[in-house]
Every structure is written in structure tokens, then in C-alpha cells.
Amino acid sequence: MEKRIQSASLLLDASLGHCFVEGLEHRDGNVIYNCLRAYAAIDNTKSAEEIFRTTIVAPLIQKVIPHGSSGLIGGDELEDDYQQIINYIEKNCKFLLEISFTENSGLHVFSFLANSILKEVLSAIQKGKPGAFSPGRPTEFLKNYKSSLDFLDHLEGYYPSRSTVAKFRSESVYGEFMKQWNTGVYFSLRFQEIAGALDSTLMLTSLTPVDNSNSDKGISGDLTLKQSVALLESLRSCWREDILLLSCSDKFLRLSLQLLSRYANWLSSGLAARKSGNTASNPGSESALSAVPDDLVYVIHDINYLVTEITGSYLERVLQLLASCSSEVLDLVKQSILQGGKSLKDLVPVIMNAVIEALVEKSVEDLRQLKGITATYRMTNKPLPVRHSPYVSGVLRPLKGFLDGERAAKYLTSEARGDLLRTAAFEITTRYYELASDLVSVARKTESSLQRIRQGAQRRAGASSDVSDNNVSDTDKICMQLFLDIQEYGRNLSALGVEAAEIPAYKSLWQCVAPPDRQNAVTF
């Protein structure tokens, strides 16, 4: 009995198959409809889908993507192929699809789009253009991937309802087709490309200004350093149409934040190395160590520009691309990018302090010359000084030269220049007071020791011990020289726009060296 049933089943399949092929070749709607009803009744939809694939679909797809066509004209690109296939579907397959989607026909059990058309397309690409699936060529891969998604969207457009679209996506061939696109490898390659470009620029041994004659203003805007331009280019690359894969948008967002963090850490480690004078523990920080204050002005300007760009048009672009996400997700994206911008903004005061420290140290180099005042007046019988020392005119010269320079005038706001002037003036004056007070303290101790020695010698000789009381001491001469010096220094501060009397350290310095009758009022 089993053999007879099996024989009858084979005969039915053959007869039904022959009839279905005839119907397909002649586009006989009644025959096709009845054959499909029969296939559905005996629960043999796979045979109908396979016959349609081999009889109608395969010959058409073979015309578009013949086996072994990889590397021929057009390479492995799929966009034009998909367009031809869509045209063939519309012209040669639509008639069957319309029949299978007939309402209340019971033919919804067939999945010709998946098991006939998509299956054949996948097979043709695997055999004819296997390179189309390779992420090793990221640009071509992305183009083919997007074309494939558009093709799937077109196929889904034939379905009459969301439930049928969901059924199409659940088909095994659909999953197999999507598995061909290794988006993880694609992102890894883009990560290396984008992050590597920034990293190689940050490893330069100096802060490198942009060549304005050749720079592309559309990319760099008003940025001044190549390192900053590299950051902005890398950030924008993450969301460029020819790079971004929306299914990997979370990874590209993370990469964007990592790029910001890398740039911020590069600056932070450079400033730390600058402070310690050691680059061994911070590779790539040589640029900060060799930077002069004018170079750091570029950094401050670039950070301000980057923060404005990142929290403005860049953020808007990202949110626009992710508009399909929920409001909660968009809010998280916004906050993460704003936080990245803030991490850069927080570095501005630190860099400004580095500028001030560099200027103060240059000024202190001149201030150290005041140590020579002791040698000038100690036991030399020189008269009381009547004019300031030559070193005084050089103390504020680095600060004035910096503020009058082209970069500070162009890239620092008047408010920033004012803050820098006041902070640097206060710090220089503090260092001035420390050096001068130490000098006076040592001079007085030395004077006291010499006085005791002289008095002891005079007592042993039987002479009067107050012979020199009315003479001007060496310490008095030293203090008078310093007094003349700080008056000139105060006048120089006023010329820069800083009132010396408002600086606590200057008042202390004044009281340290001024004659008794000049102690109470600071006047030049």
C-alpha cells in the first residue's frame, strides 16, 4: 500500500508540476491559481516555490549576474544589478505574486519573494559576485549593503500587510542573506581607519599649524592646528553618508566619544608632562613640552572652536541621523556628546594656567638678577642708589610681548587677555616679593652678624661701640635699591593696566623695602 501511495504521490507531483510550468510559461492565471490551490491543499508549497525559481526566476537572474562574473566590468557592485532585477520582477514575476496575494484565497502560505526570488538572488551573488559581501573593501561593501537593504525594501513593498512583511523577514533565506553582511568587521576596519588617522596626527612631536594656503576651509574651518583638524575630520567621518552604517550607529557614537576622549587625554598628558618636564611616561606629549605660550594660544582657540562645533551643528547632524530613535535614546545621545564637549572646555583654564606659568618663569629669569644687588653694595662703600636696576625693565617684557603679539590679539578675547594679565601680574609680583624678602632677610642677618663682630673688636680695642651708628648701612643701600626697583616695577604694571597697590604681594614688598617714612602710602 505504501508503494502505491508513494507512486500516486510522485505522479501527482509530476502532473501538477507539469501543469504549473505550462501555466507559468503561458501566464495562464486560472491554471496558476488552481495549481497553487492544489499545492496548498497537499501542503507542498516548497515544490511550487522551487518550480517558479528554476523556471522563471533563475533564467532572469542569470542574465543579470552570470556565474563567474566577479571582476568583470562593473566589478562587484550590485546597485545596477538590483535595478535590473527589480525591472524583471515587475515585468515577469508580478503576475504570480498578485495571484498569491489574492484575498481569502488561502494562497498566503506561499513565499515566492523569499524562497524563489531572494533565494535565487543570493545564490547568484555568491556564485557570480562573492566579493560584494567582502568588508575588506569598506566603501564598496557599504554601497552594496545599502543597495541590498533598498532591494529588500522593494520586495517588502509587494506584501499587503505588516504581518506578511514580518513573515517574510522570518524566512530562513532572509536570515541567510543578512548573515552575508559582516557589519562587525566593516566597523572594525572603519574604526582602525578613523581612529588611526587621529592617533598618527597626535603622535607628531610638535603642535603643527595648519597650512592656510592649502587647507580646505570647508573641513578645518578656523582651526589652527593639524591635530585639531584631524579630530574634527575624524568626528565628522563617523557620521558621513559614505561611512555610517545605521545598524552600527551605537558603535559609531561610542567611537565619536572615544575620539573626543583621546584628544582630551592627549592634551592632559601633554600638560602633565610639561609640568613635570618628563615625557617618558606620556608618549606623544613631546609637542606640549616644546610648545611656547603662543602655541598654546592656538590650542585654546581650537578647543573653543571645537566645543562650539561639537555642541552645535555636529550634535544637530547626529540627532538628525538618529531621528527614528526614541526620545529617551536621543536624550542620552545628546547628553553624551555635550559631556564630551564639556571635557574639552574644562581644559581651557588648565592650558591658560600653563601659558601663565611659562610667562611667569620667563619673568623670574630676570627677577633672579636682583641677587646681584647684594654683591653691589656689600662692603663696597658705594653711595646710596638713586635709580632703578637695569633688570627691572625686562621683568614684564615677556608678558607685554605676549599680550601685544599677533596670536593673543587675534585668538584670545579681551576678557581672556585681561584675566591672563591680572593673574600673571599677581604671580610675578608674588615671586618678586619672595625673592626680595629673602634677599633683605639674609642681608639683615649678615649685617647683624658683622655688626656684632665689629662691636666685639672695638670693645677689645677700647674704642667706642657706636662710631658707625650714624652711617648708612649696606642693608639700607640694598633696601633703597630694591625700593627704587619696585617703584619702577609698579610704574610698568600701571602701563599694562594693572594697579600695583591692588596686589597684596606688592603691598608686602613695599613694606619690606620702603624707608620708614614711606611705609604707609604706595606712591611712585
Q: Could you explain the architecture of this structure?
A:
With 524 residues, this protein is mostly helical. The chain is 72% helix and 0% strand. The protein has 23 helices and no strands. The protein has helices at 2-26, 29-41, 45-64, 79-100, 112-128, 138-156, 162-170, 172-179, 183-202, 217-220, 226-237, 249-276, 286-290, 293-321, 327-345, 347-367, 372-377, 392-395, 397-404, 406-411, 414-461, 474-496, 504-513. Helix 3 (45-64) packs antiparallel against helix 4 and helix 21 (414-461) packs parallel to helix 23. The longest helix has 48 residues, at 414-461.
Topology of this structure?
Elements: H1 2-26, H2 29-41, H3 45-64, H4 79-100, H5 112-128, H6 138-156, H7 162-170, H8 172-179, H9 183-202, H10 217-220, H11 226-237, H12 249-276, H13 286-290, H14 293-321, H15 327-345, H16 347-367, H17 372-377, H18 392-395, H19 397-404, H20 406-411, H21 414-461, H22 474-496, H23 504-513
Summary of the model, kept short:
The protein has 23 helices and no strands. It has helices at residues 2-26, 29-41, 45-64, 79-100, 112-128, 138-156, 162-170, 172-179, 183-202, 217-220, 226-237, 249-276, 286-290, 293-321, 327-345, 347-367, 372-377, 392-395, 397-404, 406-411, 414-461, 474-496, 504-513.
